[in-house]
Design brief:
This protein is α/β, with parallel strands linked by helices. The chain is 39% helix and 20% strand.
Length: 313
């Protein structure tokens, strides 16, 4: 995405970038403050890895101004992503993540650290990929009160339910979601509702100002839905969707994630494939946003948008 948008970033925003480090489980730690060529890396031709004790040493070798954090999710702790982001901020780099864990488990800590270091902690890509869920509120919806929201926020379960409706088995539907790149090798977090629960908590924490704990989200996944039940209700003009809800009640927010049987007239029932949607119930009006069949490029765009928000004056 950085390569594809390079000319536009330079001409329209006067932003230039240099890739100085990449780290993955497969390739190890790679750093060069003078710059790495991204095109060979994109085609799998990696420079030799370098010995690094941890992410902090790697960031110091890379002399990074911005860290993009996209490690695998640990729903229960948010680690190691939290420590990656803390290291970046402490070393004077903006911290941008696509990982929901740090928002749920360390939002206040990371926000305070970013403020102290005069850097940005940004996380737009954590919910609905490139849709401006979080950045929309301070800029586009000032002086509004978010009283609640509902939506379908997990692409994997939406794909699985859609494929089962078409006649695939549960296992075949999961493999289809993995082939599309929306499901992990271990899809437990998606199928059991953990991913959706984290997203509900993240939105409630950031936009409703309530420190919701993950264990406070009432969570039920889709495993108990039989293939016969999913297909029979579809034939009757209804559909099951894994629906996320949050509602403000006094000083608290009640959050739920569970399969719901929706009428065909419900906008959420019409979501196909990887599509997702959210409805915000504000004190002045309600607002719905639908993201139609996003791919990995949509997540990349969310990270890119945060990059621009971080580095522009």
């Amino acid at each position: 995405m950085l390569v594809a948008k390079e000319t536009e970033l330079r001409r329209r925003y006067d932003v230039r970038w240099r890739l100085t480090g990449v780290a993955t489980r497969r390739a190890g730690w790679v750093a060069d403050p003078d710059g790495l060529s991204p095109l060979p890396i994109l085609t799998g031709h990696w420079p030799p890895p370098q010995p690094c004790r941890d992410v902090r040493e790697w960031l110091e070798k890379a002399r990074a101004d911005v860290l993009f954090e996209a490690s695998s999710l640990d729903a229960q702790t948010g680690q190691p992503a939290v420590e990656h982001l803390k290291a970046a901020l402490e070393l004077g780099a903006h911290a941008i993540t696509a990982n929901k864990g740090p928002v749920v488990h360390a939002f206040r800590e990371l926000t305070a650290l970013a403020y102290e270091k005069k850097k940005k902690f940004l996380f737009e890509a954590t919910v609905m990929d490139g849709v401006p869920i979080f950045s929309m509120f301070p800029l586009g919806l000032p002086a509004t009160e978010l009283r609640g929201f509902s939506g379908v926020l997990n692409s994997t379960t939406n794909v699985v339910l859609t494929e089962i409706e078409k006649g695939r088995s549960f296992d075949e539907a999961v493999k289809r979601a993995q082939a599309l790149g929306v499901a992990e090798t271990d899809p437990t977090a998606d199928l059991d509702g953990w991913d959706a629960a984290l997203k509900v908590a993240a939105v409630a924490i950031v936009l409703m100002g309530v420190p919701v704990k993950l264990e406070q989200v009432q969570r039920t996944g889709i495993r108990d839905l039989t293939e016969e039940k999913i297909r029979s209700v579809r034939a009757a003009g209804m559909r099951y969707k894994l629906v996320c809800r949050a509602e403000r009640r006094g000083d608290t927010v009640v959050c739920t994630v569970q399969p719901e049987l929706l009428l065909a007239s419900d906008p959420l029932a019409n979501l196909e494939g990887t599509s997702s949607a959210i409805r915000f119930d504000l004190d002045v009006f309600s607002l719905s946003i639908v993201e139609h069949n996003p791919g990995i490029e949509a997540t990349a765009y969310g990270l890119l948008a945060d990059f621009l928000r971080a580095v522009q004056p």
